[in-house]
Write a structure and sequence with these properties.
Structural class: alpha/beta
Distance between the termini: 23 Å
Bound molecules: aspartic acid, magnesium ion
Oligomer: single chain
Helix content: 25-40%
Shape: globular
Strand content: 25-35%
Number of helices: 11
Order of helices and strands: EHEHHEEEHEEEHEEHHEEEHEEHEHEEH
Number of domains: 2
Radius of gyration: 24 Å
CATH topology of the largest domain: Carbamate kinase
CATH architecture of the largest domain: 3-Layer(aba) Sandwich
Largest sheet: 8 strands, mixed
Length: about 425
């Protein structure tokens, strides 16, 4: 018998029918002999709808404290209804808000980090044989204010609670089957991964794989919480996220991620002076603009060129900042460029296998696509390329790294239950 945290996202509990199905699923898990603690998100688009409502009543950014008061209601609806649905099946269940479950956070509204969890109430109810339903996404500050953890924060609630109660497993139920080698909408033969390491998952989550919130993965890694991402609609085995994922022979790249929302700004003819780069990036940071890849080319006759990539949503704002700096920096011109994408290959096996980047550059250039920017980490290589060729490039990389067939050995094999 295991202690399991089960987390269901908003789409899994989007209406009464789905809520009933989830209740049945939880009851079945308990009947297998497990103790279940459930974390649930707000139903469907509730959080978005509440944000829309607030915009109709307040011009500009609504007061952060009241926003948290408002948004936390979404999850409170879910826990009460889910608890009723489970009790309707003749099982014992009890719902707890974030603060009742002992989720303490820092005193920041809208994006609070969890500082401590006091799960005695949760554990007591588990002890009494109850299924415990906890509201995701919310917590409380030391002086009793309601906070929320940032969009998508219910994943973090689930993982943090799993760590605090020393659960054997944290199951993240969602509307996809697991983590794939790449987006199956782009590459038909994309494979569901049987396992992936925390570090690989962290890279993929940061690169935009929406299946898990990056902060939740960080939390899981830090506390060594075994995770599984699986479908709330089927019984297929999901993808396990853990410290060391099995490396099939020859698998160096685990997955391919892409971000379609990339722009590049080039600043050309910048007089060489100490502090020019700092000026640019301090000014961008002051406007909360996240810069991704930065490239500085060599200096010719005292003039340097810089370029950097930002999310396309931030491109206009970044250009305004750069224009404003022109008199002070004395550069010749600044050029924005949209319609770019960032393609990344991720795999822990890269650490000990040279040639991953070379293979990537070869594959991309053999399609006649030029590479605009490159960045690397220990387990990732990213290239910024023109957007129109994205699908071809992802397909080619998927084949080049052996992902079209490789995972067959451990995905969809005999262990997969229907
Ligand atoms: N309901 C919150 C959101 O939509 C939290 C979550 O779903 O994880 O962002
Ligand atoms: Mg949601």
């Amino acid at each position: 018998m295991a202690l399991i945290v089960m987390k269901f996202g908003g789409s899994s509990v989007g209406d009464a029918e789905r809520m009933k199905r989830v209740a049945g699923r939880i009851a079945a898990r308990q009947e297998e002999g497990h103790s279940c603690v459930v974390v649930v998100s707000a139903m469907g688009d509730t959080t978005d709808d509440l944000i829309d409502l607030s915009k109709q009543l307040y011009d500009g950014q609504p007061p952060a404290r009241e926003m948290d008061m408002l948004l936390s209601t979404g999850e409170q609806v879910s826990i009460a209804l889910l608890s009723m649905a489970i009790q309707n099946l003749g099982k014992q269940a009890v719902s707890f808000t974030g603060w009742q479950a002992g989720m303490m956070t820092e005193a920041v509204h809208g994006k609070a980090r969890i500082t401590d969890i006091q799960p005695s109430r949760v554990l007591q109810a588990v002890e009494e044989g109850k299924i415990v339903i906890v509201a995701g996404f919310q917590g409380m500050t030391e002086d009793g204010q309601i906070t929320t953890l940032g969009r998508g924060g219910s994943d973090t609630t689930a993982v943090a609670l799993a760590a605090a109660i020393n659960a054997d497993l944290c199951e993240i139920y969602t509307d996809v089957d697991g983590v794939y080698s790449t987006d199956p909408r782009v590459v038909k033969v994309a494979r569901k991964l049987k396992e992936i390491s925390y570090d690989e998952m962290l890279e993929l989550a940061h690169l935009g794989a929406a299946v898990l919130h990056p902060r939740a993965v960080e939390y899981a890694k830090h506390n060594q919480v075994p995770l599984v991402v699986r479908s709330s609609f089927t019984n297929h085995e999901g993808t396990y996220v853990k410290e060391e994922a099995v490396m099939e022979q020859g698998v160096v790249v685990r997955g391919i991620a892409f971000d379609k929302n990339v722009s590049r700004i080039s600043i050309l003819g910048v007089p060489e002076k100490v502090g020019q780069l700092a000026k640019v990036f301090n000014a961008l940071a002051a406007e909360q603009i996240d810069v991704d890849i930065i490239v500085q080319s060599g200096v010719t006759s005292g003039l340097a060129d810089f370029s950097f990539s930002v999310s396309s949503n931030d491109c206009d704002k970044a250009m305004t900042v750069i224009d404003r700096l022109k008199p002070e920096m004395g550069y010749r011109e600044a050029i924005p460029e949209g319609n770019l994408v960032k393609v990344s290959v991720v795999g822990a096996g890269m650490v000990s296998n040279p040639g991953v980047a070379a293979k990537m550059f070869d594959s991309i250039s053999s399609l006649g696509v030029s590479i605009n920017m490159v960045s690397t980490s220990e387990i990732k290589v990213s290239c910024v390329i023109e957007g129109s060729r994205l699908n071809d490039v992802v397909q080619a990389l998927h084949t080049a790294y052996g992902l079209d067939t490789q995972e067959q050995a451990f995905v969809g094999g005999p262990s997969e239950r229907r």
